[in-house]
């Protein structure tokens, strides 16, 4: 379902603020969070909508952020 705006999960997303803190990770915001349709392919977005657990380290592409 495309709503033409950025991801509706941004306010509650554990990773979104971390993307802001680390310049190298801001690419995720551009590619997923703030994109009108690509955020729907984000693994965090998909799992959350499916009622599945969303690990704090899960990246939009399904890989995990280094901790
Ligand atoms: S990481 Fe995924 S769920 Fe979180 S704000 Fe970005 S697009 Fe939305």
Can you offer a commentary on this structure?
The chain is mostly helical and 67 residues long. It has one domain. It has three helices and no strands. It has helices spanning 16-21, 26-33, 43-49. The longest helix is centred in the middle third of the chain and has 8 residues, at 26-33. The protein is globular and about 30 Å long. The protein starts with 15 loop residues before the first helix and ends in an 18-residue tail after the last helix. The structure holds iron/sulfur cluster. Iron/sulfur cluster is lined by residues 7, 9-10, 13, 15-16, 32-33, 39, 42, 44-45, 60. Residues 7, 9-10, 13, 15-16, 32-33, 39, 42, 44-45, 60 line the site of iron/sulfur cluster.
Mean pLDDT: 87
**What is the helix fraction of residues, given as a range?**
25-40%
Strand content: under 5%
Helix count, per DSSP?
3
Oligomer: single chain
Broad shape: globular
List ligands, each type once.
Answer: iron/sulfur cluster
Report the radius of gyration as a whole number of Å.
11 Å
Give, in order, the helices and strands: HHH
Measured between the Cα atoms of the first and last residue, the distance is 33 Å
Low-confidence stretches: none
Sheet of most strands? none
Task: Compute the number of strand runs.
Answer: 0
Structural class: mainly alpha
Can you tell me the number of structural domains? 1
